[in-house]
Structures
1.
Amino acid sequence: MPSASPTLFRWSDIELDKVTEMVSRKEIRGAHESLVQTYFKKGALVPVHEHSGPQWIYVLQGVLLVTTGGEAITAREGDVVHVPGGTAHQLEALDDSFVLDIRRT
């Protein structure tokens, strides 16, 4: 069985993508997944959307309000939220926040 070599990525080498005035991110894409660092300014709102695969949201700093199916979860530093694939959800930054998320595509 052939083995693939590991690949090293450095966040410092990845360009910051300014999505809006309130949201910026850096993304590493694999064949079937992505790893994303996202920076939210307090008050940032990511409107209702969904991903085909599951998403794991790890709050490294700040506070996020994650709403899915009418249920709101307040996620603080150190918390991890799992959003199943195909589930509509919305994010609101209740404070300046830094998040790492993993998405299966």
2.
Amino acid sequence: MKSKTAKTRFDRYFSAQMKNRKFAAAYKPARTGIDSVGAFMRSLEDARTTSGISKAKLAQLTGTQPAAMRRLLTTDAPNPTLATVMSILKSLGYGLALVHMRPKSKAKQAWRAAAHSAMA
């Protein structure tokens, strides 16, 4: 049987705020951005693990304090600077690329997939 966790004052406040359409409309894209940064940082952590580089060694390679690197790679809400991200990527042997997020039509997606597989 699942136990219910009592709602905190913040939980109740947040639930009330989310009923406000203006607040909810502003919150959703902001939350998406925060979640995207978190997912990106988890990907960096996966790349670090795969490469076999310790957090301490990565800190040394990037000129960062070991404790700061540990926090950056393990916190639930990281907020790194672009310079820090670029330094980490370079140290791990990765780069950064822009990906357009505009939805594509299904026909265009199918055409690109077919063209890509024809080139492979």
3.
Amino acid sequence: MTYRLRITETAKKDLRRLLGYVRQRARHIVKSLADDPRPSEAKELRDMPGRYRIRLVKWRVIYRVDDDDQVVLVLRVRRKMGPVTYEGIE
């Protein structure tokens, strides 16, 4: 079952700012979420049910899954900097 993929404006800006090789891998990860919103490498964020992250070297793709509407919403693509990486996520 294919999910619709939505990307916030903030996440689009984050993607544009990535280095070329990281940006290409990040875009591939984001596109693949439509077919499998919870791949084996995805981890659900503590204290944030329904929000997940996927590691990408020193970066994290942070997203939310809405099973009722079958939507994957990419929230941010951030550099891992400890717990502050996940602060301010919708």
